[in-house]
Specification:
Layout lengths: L2 E7 L6 H16 L8 E6 L20 E8 L4 H19 L6 E8 L12 H4 L3 H7 L4
Parallel strand pairs: 1-2, 3-4
Antiparallel strand pairs: 1-3
Helix pairs in contact: 1-2
Amino acid sequence: MPLVRISLSRGSASSLRQIGDAVHQAMVDTIGIPEKDRFQVFDVHEPEELIFDETFYDVRRSPGFLAVQITLAKGRTVEVKKKLYARMAALLHERAGVRPEDVFVSLLEVGPADFSLGNGKAQFAEALPPHLAALQSPTA
């Protein structure tokens, strides 16, 4: 049950649906979340409220910069994470015109008991769904 926060400048806000769709599809394609497991929050800022270095690590960022922060259950390999980053940048470019250089991603990994899907319960602490149980197996 990833929770996705997408922060971007007001000038990019006209394509929120396309951005959200691209981010979600990248997660479905690469980290094995179910299609209906979609929880996203958009933070739209005035340009002066979104501060980023335009050249850090030799990446040329533009005013179209967006930050994607995903809180998700821990357990994915480095290779799976790399596939997520690449797929997300490609889909954001294809579907929303976001330059790959402007896609900043941060993953926050937490334990299954750190989620409540509603009703005041820790559903994943009681029983893991198949896509998360697979992360706990020694072959994952």
